[in-house]
Write a sequence for this structure.
């Protein structure tokens, strides 16, 4: 850089900020790809960077800020679920898309056993990554609180409870389940059952609450009795959906509709209904949740609640990058809308 013909050394972040008329933190956010900066401000900062010939020293920045330019995505589930369920692959695609234009590497980590969790705790305790994304969070999972204790930026897909303090990105699970159940009831179905997810997961309890709300709004006084009789726990797997549907048929042979809290469980329900000689949707209407690729390949095609899973992944990554760039930033709680997609099964 030259000033009145004299070389003044390499341009600094402060000089870029002064040239652009913004704060040092804003320049840092632009360099790190934060979505918090408006397009207009980003353009001004980028023009100042170009005018001054500023080149970010990423190695020095990482060293000074104890940065690794890497984040971890933790999935506390068996690899059989990871590779069988579209939800996880869609989350990964969304995260990867958000990181594509950054220098941040993504580390995929499975945490299934106490030994693996202990090793993971030691890894994070050594600050080998800049932040952590978590999916499939159970109510008693201690990792989010541990990350808070370590002052490690973290963002959850979903949440452990309605009082979650850690940043999270979630879907409107209660509203989506209510819409699905109301759709079935609106078709004149009255023996409407549900297959829940594991009830130690807040997402499963929210979808059960949505189901119960729709029953109350339509059936009134008889809603609680119906919900108690026709709510069967599943585990978000196809086999779990099959077993739960067999239990529903045992409890209520006259069942005429099922809301499954995931498309994977709905696929299992479809198998069980077919084995029992029940036609879908003639005898039993069926609705799933996720609107995954599974919904578009069942026979009949599956009516499902669409949650924007890839957008969840993208948003999680963006929120995490914001927290890494500015550790003092307010924790973010983001709820994305859902939509009922009607197909042949209902």
């Amino acid at each position: 850089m030259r000033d009145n013909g004299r070389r003044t050394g390499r341009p600094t972040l402060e000089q870029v900020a002064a040239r652009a008329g913004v704060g040092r933190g804003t320049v840092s956010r632009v360099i790190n790809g934060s979505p918090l900066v408006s397009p207009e401000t980003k353009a001004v900062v980028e023009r100042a960077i170009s005018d001054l010939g500023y080149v970010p020293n990423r190695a020095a920045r990482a060293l000074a800020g104890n940065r690794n330019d890497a984040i971890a995505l933790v999935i506390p589930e068996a690899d059989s679920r990871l590779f069988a369920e579209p939800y996880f692959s869609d989350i990964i695609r969304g995260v990867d898309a958000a990181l594509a234009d950054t220098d941040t590497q993504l580390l995929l980590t499975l945490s299934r056993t106490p030994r693996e969790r202990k090793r993971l705790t030691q890894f994070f305790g050594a600050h080998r990554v800049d932040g952590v994304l978590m999916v499939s969070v159970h109510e008693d999972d201690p990792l989010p609180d541990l990350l808070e204790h370590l002052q490690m930026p973290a963002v959850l897909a979903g949440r452990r409870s309605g009082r979650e303090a850690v940043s999270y990105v979630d879907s409107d699970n209660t509203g989506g389940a209510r819409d699905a159940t109301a759709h079935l009831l609106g078709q004149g179905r009255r023996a409407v059952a549900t297959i829940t997810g594991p009830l130690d997961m807040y997402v499963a309890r929210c979808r059960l609450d949505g189901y119960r709300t729709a029953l109350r709004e339509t059936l009134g006084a008889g809603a609680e009795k119906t919900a108690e009789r026709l709510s069967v726990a599943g585990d978000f797997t196809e086999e779990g959906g099959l077993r739960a549907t067999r239990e529903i048929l045992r409890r209520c042979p006259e069942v005429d509709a099922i809301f499954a809290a995931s498309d994977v469980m709905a696929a299992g329900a479809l198998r069980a209904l077919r084995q029992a000689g029940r036609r879908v949707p003639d005898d039993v209407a069926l609705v799933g949740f996720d609107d995954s690729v599974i919904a578009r390949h069942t026979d009949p095609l599956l009516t499902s609640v669409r949650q924007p899973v890839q957008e969840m992944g993208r948003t999680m990554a963006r929120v995490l990058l914001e927290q890494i760039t500015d550790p003092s930033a307010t924790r973010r709680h983001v709820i994305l809308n859902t939509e009922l997609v009607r197909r042949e099964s209902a």
Q: What stands out?
A: The CA atoms of residues 31 and 102 lie 9 Å apart. The longest strand covers residues 70-75.
